[in-house]
Amino acid sequence: MIPKRFRPAFIAALTVALTSGSFLAYSASAGSGPEAADRAATDAFARIADDVLSRRSEALVEEQQGRRGAAPGSSKAGLSAKFKKDEDTALSSLRSRKTRLAELGEAYSGADTRVTVERATVTGGRATVLVTEDTKLTYKKLRGDEPETTDFRTRYELKLTSKKGGRWELDSVKSQENGPVAVNEPVAAKVNTVKDDGNQYPDGTPAATKYPATPKPKAKTGGAYDYNAMAKYAEKYWSNYNPQYRKFNGAGGDCTNFISQALKAGGWKPVPGSSSDYRNWWYDGSRQSDSWVGANEWAWFTLSNKRAANLANVYQMDVGDVLQVDFNKDGSKDHSMMVTYRSGNGMPYLTYHSTNTYRKSLASILASYPDARYFAYRT
User: Fold this and answer.
1) How far apart are CA 347 and CA 361, in angstroms?
2) Cα–Cα–Cα angle for 45, 46, 50, nearest 5°?
3) Residues with Cβ within 8 Å of residue 43, at least 6 apart in sequence
4) Which of 250, 272, 270, 246 is nearest to 258 (CA)?
5) Average pLDDT of 153-167?
6) What DSSP character marks residue 180?
7) 166, 167, 149, 169: which is closest to 158 by C-alpha?
């Protein structure tokens, strides 16, 4: 039993306007309010963020491990003693994740991380910096039919402290996403525990996660739905959102809104009616049903209307199928994803919003969340 409420899952990356106007130089005598960092400080912030996040990516790639050598830093910015210790632990955690991925038959042959400073402000001797990370990991061809890459975009808030001589020290890097962690992010996503409201809902049956599973292939085209069209839609709009639809980044998350769009592109027909009745599913220019955007409500609609059935094992998923996750096993689903590629050896690859991600392997999801509860849907 799970609560009947509008719960569209996780918050995706928010669109952040670039700081406009000229950069203001920071001085110790500045007022109490935040001021835009000057160009030199902003450049230093960008370099330290790029160093830290690139090293995280490289921790997953054996061929590049240790390529950067010493801990990140320059004459303008470096790591605080505490953060350096924490980051050493984080890198160790990521190397352990690399080992778990290898056990599941996955590895990466290269990593490319780019960091953009979206906003940098200074208050007194403290700086707050919002950055966007774009990372591309190249799959190593272990089985031969892996996709070329997995890509993701995520946002972080950095906190730095000014030291003598104009040097800045990085104190923390905090993700601004509440969805599944990026594959190079060491800390698990936070989820909210919710109370049972006492009502019964068509919640579905959790799927096993043992590999391999008995295959259950399906025809991608020619039937009632066009699954290739679903995948094509998702892979077109995974990072550049379709302007014909509203975003729900600041209203609980965009992940289920995104898969609803892809399902519609593949032929799912709307069911009109009250927006709060989970048996209905629709979207118009100004409103939508709860089931269009809510992870739980989508599952209830899907199962009650027989739009999809639960699969026994997550590895049975094929293109156009949907995976939902209850990260903390509290009975409420937290996130929705769509399979947009399946290798010949039975590995599904998922594309989703919150965090915006392209072709992330099921192995990577399981390696990050081995204790979560999973629901697999044959759409």
Assistant:
1) 7
2) 120
3) 76
4) 246
5) 93
6) S
7) 169
